[in-house]
Amino acid sequence: MIVIDAFMLLVVLFLLYILMRLVRNDAIFIPTPKKQIRRILKEVGLSKKDVLFDLGSGDGRVVEIAAKEFGCKAIGIENSIVLYYFSKIHLRNVNNAKIIHSDVFRVNLSDATVIYAYLSKKLMKMLKKKFEKELKRGTIVISLDHEIPGWKSIKRIKTGHFYTNIYIR
Ligand SMILES: C[S@@+](CC[C@H](N)C(=O)[O-])C[C@H]1O[C@@H](n2cnc3c(N)ncnc32)[C@H](O)[C@@H]1O
């Protein structure tokens, strides 16, 4: 009985967390299917020379594919402590992969050559200023599901039930 009560409490707390993030229009953890990640990274021509940042890296799947299959340096930034530890442990033996526990707004992105972002409409709007201030000219910005207001995409591809926009800073 105590086990069921504890489980119900966890379910309720988890639902409250999701509700809170949805009300604040924050990005919740919805992983990109691996097939779509490979397709998008191929589309932008990701290579060993690149430095990819995944803003809100979730379980680390984008970082893992970029580092292992494309050979580039890949850095994930994740603000959920659970997902941070999960991905950090999972990727502990991948030398060219790194996960940072932080809010995306606290990390300098100027080393990036490719940005991958699957966040919310509100966050992409807020990130625009940071991108314009920090990113080098020529940096590729991949935004899943949301547009960057005022930026003109160079490519728009259908990925599952939504579009992915590709920009060059
Ligand atoms: C839609 S998921 C995408 C996960 C992964 N990038 C992928 O494509 O599979 C968004 C992730 O961003 C994280 N996130 C949301 N806001 C964030 C912020 N301000 N700073 C860092 N991570 C954030 C969430 O915890 C979640 O794991």
Q: Strand order of the main beta sheet, please? A: 3-2-1-4-5-7-6
What would you give as the CATH superfamily of the largest domain? Vaccinia Virus protein VP39
Instruction: Give the CATH architecture of the largest domain.
Output: 3-Layer(aba) Sandwich
Q: How large a portion of the residues is in β-strands, by DSSP E?
A: 15-25%
Give the ordered list of helices and strands. HHEHEHEEHEEE
- Summarize the main sheet: 7 strands, mixed
Task: Give the CA-CA distance, first to last residue.
Answer: 57 Å
The number of domains is 2
The DSSP helix count reads: 5
User: Mean pLDDT score, rounded?
Assistant: 93
Shape type? globular
Q: What is the CATH third-level topology name of the largest domain?
A: Rossmann fold
The small molecules bound here are: S-adenosylmethionine
The CATH class assignment of the largest domain is Alpha Beta
The quaternary organization reads as single chain
Low-confidence stretches: none
Alpha-beta content class: alpha/beta
What does this protein structure show overall?
- The chain has five helices and seven strands.
- With 169 residues, it is α/β, with parallel strands linked by helices.
- The longest helix is centred in the first third of the chain and has 22 residues.
- It is globular.
- The model has no long low-confidence stretch (mean pLDDT 93).
- Helix 5 links the parallel strand 4 and strand 5.
- The protein folds into two domains: 25 residues; 138 residues, Rossmann fold (3-Layer(aba) Sandwich), CATH 3.40.50.150.
- Helix 2 crosses helix 3.
- The chain has a seven-stranded mixed sheet with strand order 3-2-1-4-5-7-6.
- Bound molecules: S-adenosylmethionine.
- The site of S-adenosylmethionine has 21 residues, from helix 3 and strand 2.
